[in-house]
Design brief:
6-stranded antiparallel β-sheet; globular; aminotransferase; D-alanine-2-oxoglutarate aminotransferase activity; Probable branched-chain-amino-acid aminotransferase
């Protein structure tokens, strides 16, 4: 069966779907995107993702292409038409089609919306097989990383360097301060040398991760402490454990950074528990995670 995409009001086979060459997303990267995990026919943390989409659009003065309720219906219809119950949905909103000019169109044009979905394996069941390695790189992205913009060239370059090094992610840091920011496409966490679960506080320097927020909510429910406090590369290298979170990584243990083991180089007890907690969250059954 051909994959079906939603493109500006129409459901089309992806092989026939297209956007205008003067779409501002293509010309300028003038747009916002979201990625949502579909588990057993249910979009995980859908409200968080749609709220973040709305916030990012507000930050660049771009209106929603339709109401949240209507957009939710489109997301479900794309999954239904593709017969996908376990997958990753991608949606992108751009400022639409207009003669190429850096400034916004003098006459507003309709925002452009594209939605696609693809099948992926379900939440992993073996945390030891889910572990991975990372590298560190200077953070070269723009100043408003809290906006989920389609401008992802620095992220792509960082991910490519990670792949060339045999790693799955690049952990980015501020060259001036040596402080860790986040992954190229993930939130980065450590269990520090004192046993505290830590990740950087939110501001314009990092993306407000939806999986980050969902995991924190579950930790609060379970009475588990965490610390939104920045940490340096040196603190990271002394950490007992490390992990990344995202809609595609869930809770992924990081056991090697820049070729060196994190802690003892094995998946640690804290990350094991967080992996299980988030597995239950994905399945909608966190009450039994304690």
């Amino acid at each position: 069966m051909s994959k079906i995409a939603y493109v500006n009001g129409r459901y089309l086979p992806q092989s026939e779907a297209s956007v205008n060459i003067e779409d501002r997303g293509y010309q300028f990267g003038d747009g916002i995107y979201e990625v949502v995990h579909l588990h057993d026919g249910r979009y995980v943390d859908e409200d968080l993702h749609l709220a973040r989409l709305e916030r990012s659009l507000r930050e660049i003065a771009l209106p929603m292409p339709m109401s949240r309720a209507a957009l939710s219906m489109v997301l479900r219809e794309v999954a239904r038409r593709n017969r996908v119950t376990e997958g990753l949905l991608y949606m992108q909103v751009t400022r639409g089609v207009s003669r190429r000019d850096h400034a916004f169109p003098s006459k507003p044009v309709p925002p452009a919306l594209v939605v696609t979905i693809r099948r992926v394996p379900p939440y992993p069941t073996n945390v030891d097989k889910w572990q991975a390695a990372c590298i560190t790189l200077p953070d070269l992205r723009w100043a408003r990383r809290d906006i989920k913009s389609v401008n992802l060239l620095p992220n792509c370059l960082a991910r490519q360097k990670a792949r060339e090094a045999g790693a799955i992610e690049a952990i980015l840091f501020d060259e001036a301060t040596g402080m860790v920011t986040e992954g190229a496409a993930t939130t980065f966490w450590i269990v520090d040398e004192n046993g505290a679960i830590r990740t950087r506080f939110l501001d314009h320097v990092i993306l407000p991760g939806c999986t980050r927020a969902a995991l924190m909510a579950e930790l609060r429910t379970l009475g588990m402490d965490y610390d939104e406090r920045a940490f340096s590369l040196e603190e990271m290298r002394r950490a007992r454990e490390a992990f990344i979170t995202s809609a595609t990584s869930f809770v992924k243990p990081i056991t090697k950074i820049d070729g060196q083991p994190v802690g003892d180089g094995q998946v640690g007890p804290v990350v094991r528990r967080l992996f299980d907690i988030f597995a239950r969250h994905v399945k909608g059954d966190v009450k039994n995670a304690a």
